[in-house]
Amino acid sequence: MSSNSRITILGTVSDINAMQDHRTSAGIVIENDDSIFVIDPGIGTVVRSAQANIQLNNINAILVSDSSIIYTNDVNALIEHTNRDIHLISPSKFLKHEESSLTKNHSKNLKIVNVDSDKRTIIKGVEIEAYSYGSKLDSISYKITTGKYVLGYITKARHTKSLIEKFNDTNILIINLHNINDKNSEYLDYEEIIDIIKNVAPELAIINGFSKKAINLDPLDLVRKMKAEIQKEKNDKIIKTQIHVAKELMTINPEIYNIKLKQKRLKGFF
Known about the structure:
Largest sheet: 7 strands, mixed
CATH class: Alpha Beta
Structural class: alpha/beta
CATH topology: Metallo-beta-lactamase, Chain A
Oligomer: single chain
Strand content: 15-25%
């Protein structure tokens, strides 16, 4: 195992109304060898990064899944902390400054990846694939492939066969549990998350991004029930996925979850 690989869950909510009991929406940091990627720099990212001893001036890329303030509040402060030009991958809507928290001044030195035309890019040897929620690319999910593991990150998404196929080679899957049972929500609901975990069968699933309703129902209890549902699988395969509840400042060594690393590699980029 390498000490250069670390995933840090900085924050655990996807709802302004859920920001209580010391919870934030500070996003996720991926440290891979000599590169650092920040996903969804929401409220509390700068403070939580300092608490986790993450050097913000060394960031290589910011990945934004949705332009709402809960996911992007600290993006300008994050940019100011860097000492280099960094990549930004985001929904198209986030680049419209009058509609997002990103200012024109802060976007000047960014290497912007336009997901309208390029949904796949390589940054510091890491492949990043962006999948849109809808045709307008207002929200996107990510699959991040390193040489050691594959990470899937889903905030808003439609439950489809195509979505499952896109993430079926992930070792670690992080999914937001914002929605419990609303079929009209932009977020996956509780039952859809269970089905995705069953079908993707990653080594590790982390349930994150809780709404106020999810917190009131107790995320730990919800995940216990989720595990019980998945263990009911009686077909020809047994789901051995570990399912964890995200905690503020939770750290993961991702290299121990690469047991079924597929042969997917960075085709055409080397």
